[in-house]
Amino acid sequence: GFLQFENYFRPKPGSLTEYRGMKANIQVYQEMIELCQVISDSGRPVDGEPELREISFGELFQIYVHINDKVVGLLLRARKHELLTFEGECLFQKFHDHVPIYLLRPCKKIREIMTEKQNEIRRSLSPNPR
Predict the structure, then answer these.
(1) What is the pTM assigned to this prediction?
(2) Percent helix, percent strand, percent coil in the chain, to nearest 5
(3) Which residues pair with 100 in a beta bridge?
(4) 33: helix, coil or strand?
(5) What's the rounded Cα separation, in Å, for the pair 62 and 82?
(6) Computed from CA positions of residues 18, 82, 53, 66, in that sequence, does the dihedral angle turn out positive or negative?
(7) Positive/negative CA dihedral, 113, 14, 23, 11
(8) Which residues in the chain belong to E strands, given as ranges?
(9) How many CA atoms lie within 13 A of 120 on its CB side?
(10) Chain centroid offset of residue 99 CA
(11) Comparing C-alpha atoms, which of 25, 33, 44, 27 is closest to residue 101?
């Protein structure tokens, strides 16, 4: 039935595939932290929210493409994790350069949230979870 289908696309628990996936997630969380740090460092304060920052996609792309060519995928994942927001489904260089990207939390808080997610994964990877 349906319950079997639910786990169809998931690797078998304890498998090397699951382990690799978890390690990859730790890396993606790290990249999301770095992306938000770039926005925090290079962005402008948001009106009425001096702790928060905004930057246009064009500006971010110029800065970030030198660091990481997966900037659009990272932006989508960071939005899914409610770390930042922007209008539209996806962003394309040149076409969406004017679109503002807003951090939804101060970068320090984002770092805490993502580090905790990384630690949860690390704990589940540990041979004797605490």
Answers:
(1) 0.67
(2) 55, 15, 35
(3) 56
(4) helix
(5) 23
(6) positive
(7) negative
(8) 44-46, 49-56, 84-85, 100-103
(9) 8
(10) 18
(11) 44
Model pLDDT for residues 61-94, shown as the tens digit of each residue: 888 776 666 888 899 999 999 999 999 988 888 8
3-state secondary structure of 85: strand
* Tokens, residue 89: 């489904």
* Residue 60 CB burial class (10 angstroms; 0-12, 13-18, ≥19): buried
Tell me which residue has tokens 């922007």.
86
CB 79 within 8 A of CB 86: yes
> Do you know the residue count of the chain?
130
- Structure tokens of 64? 């970030």
End-to-end CA distance of the chain: 34
DSSP character string of 46-69: ETTEEEEEEEEHHHHHHHHTTT-T
Supply the Cα-derived Rg of the chain in whole angstroms. 17
